[in-house]
UniProtKB/TrEMBL annotation:
PANTHER family (UniProt xref): ALKALINE PHOSPHATASE, ALKALINE PHOSPHATASE-RELATED
Membrane topology: Lipid-anchor; GPI-anchor
Annotated EC: 3.1.3.1
GO CC aspect terms: plasma membrane; side of membrane
Subcellular location: Cell membrane
Binding site for Mg(2+): 5, 118, 120, 277
Protein name: Alkaline phosphatase
Binding site for Zn(2+): 5, 282, 286, 323-324, 400
Alphabetic keyword roster: Cell membrane, Glycoprotein, GPI-anchor, Hydrolase, Lipoprotein, Magnesium, Membrane, Metal-binding, Zinc
GO molecular function: alkaline phosphatase activity; metal ion binding
Cofactor note: Binds 1 Mg(2+) ion.
Length: 481
């Protein structure tokens, strides 16, 4: 599963044009790698309690099959935001496609350009009444809101609890969430060094030389996948740097991380599930830096192509989607081939030019004129990656958008991903295809993939089967607000 965080339809359109224009073509008729996949659908992204979703409730949906409340992770809608005691009750916790895959003997990996404890990846392994409880220090800040002594922070769940401790490949940012807050480690934790715990745990359980902890690109590229079963790579104190701002000698690309993850995981005789997130698309949109958002989308496209090149359509299902939209819009009537990141070539009724891309809301621009009119953009440098695009409503940060997002699929049972459906059906359909999770043993469904191959049994009515799975799954629980 590839997740472009905040990858709206407008982002896709503008990114394919940007990709083409970087290669000296007009761009409008270009394709991102996954836009060539044979099956396309759309998913509805709302939370149980919000029209416009965040990355936590959506991660719960597309990784566990259960719609949840805003900013909660791995929990049913019975748990409200900040309800620590409620989050530890077994009946309120959801199981993810990582749990399902491990139960069938498959390996699991996660790759992200954000902190590995951020909302999207944490949907694989964590149960938290607030997405911000990434370290024990962050959890302690909520002591005035709930009894924090009853639950654990997200980083600790990843390293010390199942399924997190059994994830074989973990690559991304967020080093500070795992290290102690002292002059040696410069982390944020007050209780324990989770990196050392991870190292010791892997040696104790699997012996020496079976695992590796790394912090830079050179170390990643030097990993021998034939000799490495467990790999933890933390390439930044917080999120990794934007591709356009990164030191290429120190920070690996999303494509390089994806390649190494597949090389390690493909050894597994029962197959694997890999989650890959292009998380900085979202981060760039939140500060209305459109060039960075488009560039991160193109980098995400390269990572998808890497996976396509390393796998077979006969036995590997690849699903590419987004968790939610953003408020970036593309408007005006620029001529074909015009720089999508520049001025549109037209003027507003105030006789001032405007950019092709803009946002419905976002960080306030301090350069508006004294009469409260629009900024004169005739002399702005839109080639600056840090140029913040115009927005209508001033806010501290740009918000998400609420419209549906695209889903692209390739491989066995990819046709199930056509049409328009609830976001939480995505992992159920993936599980159905792989023979894991609630749909694993449905009559007429495929058997689990093993070293003997994928069952050729087909279902006469997959939609009927999936409907029955949904009826058996706690999709949305009734909540008293």
């Amino acid at each position: 599963m590839f997740l472009g965080d905040g990858m709206s339809v407008t982002t896709l359109t503008a990114s394919r044009i940007y990709k083409g224009q970087m290669e000296k073509r007009s761009g409008e008729n270009e394709y991102l790698s996954f836009e060539k996949f044979p099956f396309v659908g759309m998913s509805k992204t709302y939370c149980v309690d919000k029209q416009v979703a965040d990355s936590a409730c959506t991660a719960t949906a597309y990784l566990t099959g259960v719609k949840a409340n805003y900013e909660t992770i791995g929990l049913s809608a019975s748990v409200m935001l900040n309800d620590c005691p409620g989050s530890v009750m077994p009946e309120n916790r959801t199981q993810s496609i990582a749990d399902w895959s491990m139960a069938k003997g498959k390996a699991v990996g996660l790759v992200t350009t954000t902190r590995v404890t951020h909302a999207s990846p944490s949907g694989l392994y964590a149960h938290s009444a607030h997405r911000d409880w990434e370290s024990d220090a962050e959890l302690a800040k909520a002591a005035n809101l709930t009894d924090v002594t009853q639950c654990e922070d997200i980083a600790k769940q990843l390293i010390t609890r199942s399924p997190g401790m059994d994830i074989k490949v973990i690559l991304g940012g967020g080093r500070e969430m795992f290290l102690l807050n002292d002059t040696v480690h410069n982390g944020s934790r007050t209780d324990m060094d989770l990196v050392e715990f991870w190292k010791n745990d892997k040696v104790k359980r699997f012996g020496k030389d079976k695992s590796a902890y790394i912090e830079n690109r050179e170390q990643l590229l030097n990993i021998d996948p034939s000799k490495t079963d467990y790999l933890l790579g933390l390439f930044g104190k917080s999120h990794m740097k934007f591709h356009l701002n990164a030191n290429a000698n120190l920070q690996p690309t999303l494509t390089e991380m994806t390649k190494k993850a597949i090389e390690v995981l493909k050894k597994e005789k029962n197959g694997f599930f890999l989650f890959v997130e292009g998380g900085l698309i979202d981060a760039a949109h939140h500060v209305t830096m459109a060039r960075l958002a488009l560039d991160e989308t193109v980098e995400f496209s390269k990572a998808v192509q890497q996976a396509v090149d390393m796998t077979s359509e006969d036995d590997t299902l690849i699903v590419v989607t987004s968790d939610h939209s953003h408020t970036m819009m593309m408007a005006g009537y620029p001529v074909r081939g015009h720089d999508v990141l520049s001025l549109s070539g037209s003027q507003g009724s105030d006789n001032l030019p405007y950019t092709t891309l803009s946002y419905a809301n976002g960080p306030e621009n301090k350069k508006s004129d004294a009469n409260c009119g629009r900024e004169d953009l005739s002399k702005v440098d839109t080639s600056n990656p840090y140029y913040t695009y115009p927005k209508l409503v001033p806010l501290q940060f740009e918000t998400h958008g609420g419209e549906d997002v695209m889903v692209f699929a390739r491989g066995p049972w990819a046709h199930l991903f056509s049409g328009n459906y609830e976001q939480n059906t995505i992992p159920l359909m993936m599980g159905f295809a792989a023979g894991v999770g609630p749909a694993a043993n449905m009559n007429g469904g495929p058997a689990a993939f093993t070293s003997a191959g994928l069952s050729t049994t087909t279902a006469s009515s997959p939609l009927t089967i999936l409907t029955s799975v949904l009826l058996m799954t706690a999709v949305i629980r009734r909540v008293c607000l």
